[in-house]
Specification:
heterodimer; A: 338 residues; alpha/beta; 7-stranded parallel sheet; 12 helices; 16% strand; B: 134 residues; 5-stranded parallel sheet; 5 helices; 24% strand
């Protein structure tokens, strides 16, 4: 594993690919590798691309990567597709739209299956981003699964989040629902050459005018959960970011320069007033609580026998005990043992 | 550790018939594999590159054009160049019997013609992956 880390830091692509597999498979010893790589991270700009299936996320990633390459940036891409809940298998097809990027050593594309995660990313995505970051890529593009309304994990991971819409996907009530639109740093209306594009732009505009969360509230991490709180007055005017709406036709490369500008402006925005440090802090806090919760749970489950669990399930099913009562009982017996 | 078998399914060359490749991709998905599907008209360099980046256990090629004797050696060469000597290639499609020996000499051990049961292919992959990890 140590040798693999060294090979990765020297820029060997197969070492990078192999480490990503180890991260995904949670191979023994991978924690040590991640720890060794961690000091080399924190340099890449992470851009999330999310939106409903069929809005053109993969094509947009392809176009964005090309544009960044023209500006001499190196690009790593993580494209997430869903795992079948029935067989555990997956078809990862995002590379189909990214063929323009082949034969370029400045690009590395990795497809990833969700493996049961529900938030739009895979469990291993965050660590995979770190591995790519340590490998020295300037920009990391993370494409989520086709996301509906609540797959918002990307906002806990990316520095700039693009939410991609396309014409004809819903009326203006969709645009004022809570969820995915609220996490956008930049709103992209892709397939803007199609009829109805202007209506989509108008609906999004109306939503923003009614008050995007950024104008009223901000996301704050509290005990590992992201909460919305009233924006502080000091954080309103100069620091307020209203997501721009950019129209693109990704397969023709139209509007991509404007999108790049918008991303660049968002990055500049974060770099003022320590906003970036605050964002990173929030990400770290959320991650720390998540990992802690997982470790505590694993630790606890190691001490509880399957028999005990099965007995509890039966007692719940016969209505002898309620589920929350079962949890309390388990915790109490564990505490007594300790 | 949660090992998942990863397979690249690619269609090199110029014929546009990707139905077979899709059927196989779907069958492998149902067998619990992660299938990286790259679509039509892949060049040997594209295939080697994808196999490397995706760290796949097996590369599956669907060739119906009759160009297998030209394409397969080129793909094997590019994969070897990329350091993927240990990644096996399997071929599906229309492969005349007289070409089988030559392909096997190039290291293609899984050759699947029309009428192959998907179970056979799954079994081949299981064995190939087992042999690799030994």
């Amino acid at each position: 594993m140590e040798a693999l880390v060294q090979r990765l830091l020297q820029g060997e692509r197969r070492a990078l690919a192999r480490l990503l597999t180890y991260v995904e498979n949670e191979v023994e010893g991978v924690e040590a590798a991640l720890a060794a790589l961690f000091p080399h991270t924190g340099k890449a700009w992470v851009i999330g691309i999310t939106g409903a299936p069929g809005t053109g996320k993969s094509s947009l990633v392809n176009a964005l990567a090309k544009a960044f390459r023209e500006r001499e940036k190196t690009i790593a891409i993580i494209a997430v597709d869903p795992t079948s809940p029935f067989t555990g298998g997956a078809i990862l097809g995002d590379r189909i739209r990214m063929r323009d990027l082949s034969g370029d050593d400045g690009v590395f594309i990795r497809s990833m299956a969700t493996r049961g995660s529900l938030g739009g990313l895979a469990r291993a995505t965050r660590d995979a981003i770190r591995v790519m970051d340590a490998a020295g890529f300037d920009i990391i593009l993370v494409e989520t699964v086709g996301a509906g309304q609540s797959e918002v994990d990307i906002v806990r991971t990316a520095h700039t989040t693009l939410v991609v819409e396309a014409p004809g996907l819903g009326d203006d009530v969709q645009a004022i629902k809570a969820g995915i639109l609220e996490i956008a740093d930049v709103l992209v209306v892709n397939k803007a050459d199609r009829p109805g594009a202007l209506n989509t732009v108008k609906s999004l505009n109306a939503m923003l005018r009614m008050g995007h969360p950024a104008s009223r509230t901000q996301l704050v991490a509290h005990h590992g959960r992201l909460l919305e709180v009233e924006a502080l007055t000091s954080n309103t005017h100069e620091a307020m970011w209203i997501p721009p709406i950019v129209q693109t036709v990704a397969i023709e490369g139209k509007g991509i320069d404007k999108l790049l500008d918008a991303i660049h402006k968002h990055r500049e925005h974060l770099q003022q007033d320590n906003l970036f440090a605050a964002l990173e802090r929030t990400h770290i806090e959320v991650e720390l609580y998540e990992r802690l919760r997982e470790a505590l749970l694993a630790n606890l489950l190691r001490n509880i026998s399957q028999d005990a669990i099965q007995t509890l399930i039966q007692r719940i099913q016969t209505r002898e005990l309620d589920p929350q009562g079962a949890v309390q009982e388990l915790l109490q017996t564990q505490q007594m043992k300790a | 550790m949660n090992r998942k078998i990863r397979v690249l399914i690619a269609k090199p060359g110029l014929d546009g018939h990707d139905r077979g490749a899709k059927v196989i991709a779907r069958a492998l998905r149902d067998a619990g594999y992660e299938v990286i599907y790259t679509g039509l008209r892949q060049t040997p360099i594209m295939i080697a590159e994808a196999a490397l980046q995706e760290d796949v256990d097996v590369v599956g090629l669907s060739i119906l054009s009759g160009a297998h004797m030209a394409l397969v050696p080129r793909i094997r060469e590019e994969m070897d160049k990329a350091g993927l000597q240990d990644v096996p290639i399997m071929v599906g499609g229309i492969i005349p019997d007289e070409d089988r020996a030559a392909l096997q000499e190039m290291g293609v051990h899984g050759i699947f013609g029309p009428g192959t049961l998907t179970e056979e292919i799954v079994e081949y992959i299981e064995n190939a992956v087992k042999a690799q990890s030994e």
